[in-house]
Amino acid sequence: MLEDFFENITVYDNRATSASYEKLEDGRYAVRLNVEAKKYHADGGGTEREVALAGEIDVGIFGEDDKVLYLEKRLMDGEAGVIEVIVDEEPHEAGIDPYNKLIDRNPEDNVTRVTSSSGGYQDALRLALPKPLRAVRRDPSALLFHGR
Questions:
Q1: What is the pTM of this model?
Q2: 10-55 pLDDT per residue, tens
Q3: Is residue 148, in this structure, part of any structural domain at all?
Q4: Which residues does residue 66 pair with via DSSP β-bridges, in sequence order?
Q5: Cβ(70)–Cβ(84) below 8 Å
Q6: Which among 17, 49, 62, 64 is least surrounded, fewest beta carbons within 10 Å?
Q7: How far is CA 23 from the centre of its chain?
């Protein structure tokens, strides 16, 4: 992975395609997050080629007011995957590389809203309301923001 930071120009295309939760009998929430992740190496002239992705990338689940419910590195070794996590509070958003630590083609699609797998009125209302504009989520402990 150090090669990706020091020897190559490395660009990622990470995205959270969907996320849902189911409330468990014990009051916790099972979250299912569908993600896609690709990695590219670029030369100085702008030509990119896709390379194998085999590394750890942050995965985050967030509650009300962006409260961190889960944040851990998960091994990504393929283009698409499903991540399942159990959290203690109702999730509102989930994503891959949510703090945009990696240089990403489109960092805005790394996080998505989490909907109830049982559906219901509250989820329909939450999806119908426009998402408030906010800055890209920042990790206060991150050392590099890649110019953002």
A1: 0.75
A2: 999 999 999 999 999 999 999 999 999 999 998 878 788 999 998 8
A3: no
A4: none
A5: no
A6: 49
A7: 21
